[in-house]
Amino acid sequence: MTRTTRKFLSMLPLSALLFAITITGCGPDAKTKKIEDLTAENDQLKKDLEDKERALQDAMVREGDAKGTIDQLNRALAEARNAGSKVKDGEWTAFNSFDFLSVPGSVLFESGKADLTASGRAKLQQIASEIRSRFADRDIYVFGHTDDQPIKKSKWKDNWELGAHRSLTAVRALHEAGVDYGTLVQANCGEHRPKIPNNNAEKNRSQNRRVEFYAVKRKGGLADTAVTKSKNSDE
Length: 235
Description:
Elements: H1 3-82, E1 93-94, E2 98-104, H2 105-108, H3 118-134, E3 138-145, H4 159-176, E4 184-190, H5 204-208, E5 210-217
């Protein structure tokens, strides 16, 4: 047996001992730390999930409240029109629980688009100024409306998507012009709440393409939707 071989064999017990220390001495500590880290990560994930579920529930409650308010607004407006109230495009009309403004889509957008024209941006800046001076203590609901013509050439999937993007564009423009996001509520009706029947391309459909603004009183609610006499009434 050579000297090198004897030296190698003599070192084996020491190497085995060091390996055993590594396995038995350090192993459990590393394993325990790994378990603790995974447990902490799992607890954090659970907390994040609970927070997200809570936020989702809160959002669903707010959405439900907004939908209820939207339905009441639409009913009140329909009752007003049926009662003969004078509602003029481009002018605010006063009701019991809200003030209402309707702007033709052609004033704000080119056909089939959701980008504001220069005149459309100027109009929304004017509306924002009116909101800041007259309705600063109210919530502002912004509805997008379209006609019932199927989308063919533009990038939108359907009229619902187009109406949603138009109302979103209007909301963002109002905010850029100084209206607090906390008071703004984006809403959309697409083609499903026409002002008049979509049976005349030149007249009726053009009137149904519009963006509507409701300045809703925060106190007093909308329980009483009886319509007051319009400010713009001829009486």
